[in-house]
Amino acid sequence: MITHPASVDADIHPLESFVKRLLQGDALLPDTETNVLEVVGILKSYGVVLDAYSINLCYMADHQFLVLFPFFKYFNGEVTLQKLLKFWWHDRINYEYAEYCMRTMLWHGGGGLDNYLDSPDFAQRCEAAVQAKTKHNPPIRLLHKLCPDFLPEQVRMLAYTSALGQFWRVMSDMFIELSDRYDRGEVRTIPDVVNHVKAGLVAAAANPITYSVTIDGQVYDLLPESAGLTFLMDTAVPYVEAVFFRGTPFLGTVSYNAQAGQIPEEQNRFEYGALYADPVPIGGAGIPPTLLMQDMRHFLPEYLHDFYRQSLRGEDDIRVQICQSFQKSMFCVTTAAILGLMPHPADTQNAAEQQANRDYLLSWMNRFMTSRLAVVQLG
């Protein structure tokens, strides 16, 4: 569940102008022709990458169930010499970033999925699947007996793997459709982008999130439909919290030494997500988004690639430029999520509902205080 710090007095809030902007139907990102080009172009590339990420995550969850040493988990079941050479040359999609996001979601938790994975019902279903998978493997059965929490934790991770794959399937299709609408002239402004994403989130809100595996011909429902898990509240909202806001501190940028005190003690105080990240370190060792930027570089629409070539450094810092565009796009997606979850319509005339909307938006503004919101206003 998304949590917010104590509210700041609305009369003196430094981001009051953004509250007014959202209530008027505008976005957190200024509506300019350049911003539209960057946001739609980068989301087109992102949509292609998410398609690959989604397919691989679902493959791992479905076909690498409790394979403790999954050497070929990124091959989607097709292991060839050509693929091996491509992987060894690192000329491939960096699926490691997808796993980074999955593990970040698993660690931060939140939402119904996190609650269900700690429930007795899941524990029972998990144990049945573990017993079936290990019945012909005495060493692993012994491991399960000696360390009874180890394999269930792997199953929890696979459940998140499948859930994130299902979430990204929807988002990939949404972003590709956005690009197609832009090409047809149907999307011309940043509010158009936000409305497209918001409509997509609302349309998929109640989609069930389920997960089952087949072992020796028998199906084991690990996330059954009866659990009531849905796309919006149980994957989209926890994803925004874990990846857009909290994230994880990147190795090499801060000290993990407890005595140094560079990392907050409480997870809900983490501010390492996409909305806070400095694009400049992109390309450095230990910076996971570098993998994503490298992947998106291969699928840039030509109009966006030309835009980057015309910059001061041309393609020399293209990953940084991609990251800057991506950050702008994430503020648009966040705007859509904020508006989609707002308790009452933005144009309500009821005074109590108007105040509820203001309080809701101010709670978000508190979280944006140290974000890159001010930077993306500059173009």
Q: Quick check: average pLDDT? A: 92
Uncertain stretches: 1-10
Strand content: under 5%
The overall strand count is: 2
Taking the alpha carbons of the first and last residues, their distance comes to 32 Å
Strand order of the largest sheet: 1-2
Following the backbone from N to C, one meets helices and strands in this order, namely HHHHHHHHHEEHHHHHH
**Percent helix range:** 55-70%
What is the SS-derived class?
A: mainly alpha
Q: Give the number of helices.
A: 15
Question: What gross morphology would you assign?
Answer: globular
Report the sheet with the most strands, covering strand number, pairing sense and barrel closure: 2 strands, antiparallel
Radius of gyration: 22 Å
Describe this structure in words.
The chain is mainly α and 379 residues long. Helix content is 58%, strand content 3%. It has a two-stranded antiparallel sheet with strand order 1-2. It is globular, with a radius of gyration of 22 Å. Mean pLDDT is 92; it is low at 1-10.
